[in-house]
Automatic annotation (TrEMBL):
It comes from Brassica carinata (Ethiopian mustard). One of its GO terms (cellular component) is membrane. Its cofactor is heme. It is found in: Membrane. This is Cytochrome P450 monooxygenase CYP83A1.
Length: 498
């Protein structure tokens, strides 16, 4: 009997110890949560960056909420971004679980969703030194310029007929064509069946990457993913994606293949697969995962950025005039009818415009989530291991301590007054992230958006379709990894006489 009493008391003491330990955990402030589901019922899928900005106004620059049993944290100030992505970068260099990412990236064999493993670090180093190096970005210069010329020719035809053009559609066609040529050395007919197939696959993959799975947050209710058809949809998208990537690999290793004029990215990756230069094995899944990253990250991001830039220019005609004047005067003096990548360094206002576009609408507004590896503290709050952390780059770009009282105003001059760049060391401006998991494709991404953007300003004046006012332009985002404007931007072009 005595043993039983001692046992019960000991058990109670242990329970009390754990409970008191738990209650000592001081999570960042946040909204009240319901049992079991946490804050799931409050979250908004529409414009999540604005939604979390609203919460940050209420709960502060570091806040926490729960989905099921998982703790989520959102950072919204430049100061705390620096703490997370610089001071504590290693501890947040991992990515959280996500069933869709797991499958589509071949069990995290890619770079973007990989765990922070030694192989990941070798892949990343190779990426920085070879795949995305300035030299390699430059080798595809002619591809980007060639595709930008094609895009301008299409707009010119529409201008002759005074018809509106769909800037969103045109930009996606541009980036799709550039990515296919850079990654696979393939030139698809833009309206042909192969291109349509590629776009369909890409849409499927992107939608799976942006979905929320019950099984990630409510493991006991994982069966709901099967009931809702999400599992079947994910499997279908994966099958289509894998068949396509396997076909491309088979073509690349075909001894009878005619090699592209410039070594494509898949050629480089297959070379690494053959030579195995890393300490850990670089598998065919790693090749496929990397290809996936190049395609997904390369197509959406640059297209979305130019569409946002043009949208804001329509809302701020004085900025449009100033940017057009700079680009046109430069071309006139040079005696040229096309802005090349090399020209951009001579266009300070245009470069400030690109930065202002990425500040006001960073196209991956919540960056890619990180996960905390070991228990730590930020701003005096406890962040337990396993916590998912998002940096709201959209909110950080509106941090009034850094950007002054009118952060919602579109004003490229900010970047003429202030020496700030997106290279990851100015924490108030992080459209490409920062630290160990910062975007390795930054240079390529910037190159892909600058040439079409500058030439739109050089060659055309734009009006909104008849009857539409600038303040009526819909500014909602389409949720995904990169956030597009959900309603396509349609404008009526007029060709500028020389
Ligand atoms: C305007 C264009 C682009 C923007 C704004 C952009 C932005 C970003 C952001 C915000 C991240 C997450 C960084 C973080 O977690 O801190 C990221 C990651 C990444 N981006 Fe980009 N990106 C762009 C273009 C590209 C291009 C063209 C490529 C490659 C072809 C690329 C490849 C990647 C990869 C592989 C990662 C994951 C890095 C890692 O986890 O180690 N991006 N990008």
């Amino acid at each position: 009997m005595e043993d039983i009493i001692i046992g019960v008391v000991a058990l109670a003491a242990i329970l009390f110890f754990f409970l008191s330990q738990k209650s000592k955990t001081k999570l960042p402030p946040g909204p009240r949560r319901l049992p079991l589901i946490g804050n799931l019922h409050q979250l908004s899928q529409l414009n999540p960056q604005r939604f979390f900005y609203g919460w940050a106004k209420k709960y502060g620059p570091i806040l926490s909420y729960k989905i099921g049993s998982r703790t989520m944290v959102v950072i919204s100030s430049a100061e705390l971004t620096k703490e997370l992505l610089k001071t504590q970068d290693v501890n947040f260099a991992d990515r959280p679980p996500h069933r869709g990412h797991e499958l589509m990236t071949y069990g995290r064999s890619d770079m973007a969703m990989n765990h922070y493993t030694p192989l990941y670090r070798e892949m990343r180093k190779m990426g920085m030194n070879h795949l995305f190096s300035p030299t390699r970005v430059a080798t595809f210069n002619h591809v980007r310029e060639d595709e930008a010329r094609k895009m301008m020719a299409k707009i010119e035809k529409a201008a002759e007929r005074s018809e509106p053009v769909d800037i969103s559609e045109l930009m996606l066609t541009f980036t799709n064509s550039v990515v296919c040529r850079q990654a696979f050395g393939k030139k698809y007919n833009e309206d042909g069946e192969e291109m349509k197939r590629f776009i369909k696959i890409l849409y499927g993959t992107q939608s799976v990457l942006g979905k929320i799975f019950f099984s990630d947050f409510f493991p006991f209710f994982g069966f709901l993913d099967n009931w809702t058809g999400l599992t079947a949809y994910m499997m279908e998208c994966f099958e289509r994606q894998d068949t396509y990537i396997q076909e491309i690999i088979d073509e690349t290793i075909d001894p009878n293949r005619v090699k592209p004029e410039t070594e494509s990215m898949i050629d480089l990756l297959m070379g690494i697969y053959k030579d195995q230069p890393f300490a850990s094995k670089f598998t065919l899944e790693n090749v496929k995962g990397m290809i996936l990253n190049i395609v997904v990250a390369g197509t959406d991001t640059a297209a979305a950025a130019v569409v946002w830039g043009m949208t804001y220019l329509m809302k701020y005609p004085q900025v449009m005039k100033k940017a057009q004047a700079e680009v046109r005067e430069y071309a006139r003096e040079k005696g040229s009818t096309f802005i090349t990548e090399d020209d951009v360094k001579n266009l300070p206002y245009f470069r400030a415009l690109v930065k202002e576009t990425l500040r006001i609408e960073p196209v991956i507004p919540l960056l890619i989530p990180r996960v905390c590896i070991q228990d730590t503290k930020i701003a005096g709050y406890d962040i337990p291991a396993g916590t998912t952390v998002n940096v709201n780059a959209w909110a950080v770009s509106r941090d009034e301590k850094e950007w002054g009282p009118n952060p919602d105003e579109f004003r490229p001059e900010r970047f003429l007054d202030k020496d700030v760049d997106f290279k990851g060391t100015d924490y108030e401006f992080i459209p490409f992230g920062s630290g160990r998991r910062m975007c390795p494709g930054m240079r390529l991404g910037a190159a892909m958006l600058e040439v079409p953007f500058a030439n739109l300003l050089l060659k055309f004046d734009f009006k909104l379709p008849a009857g539409m006012k600038a303040e009526e332009i819909n500014m909602d985002v389409m949720t995904g990894l990169a956030m597009h404007k959900s309603v396509h931007l349609k404008l009526v072009p007029t060709k500028v006489s020389k």
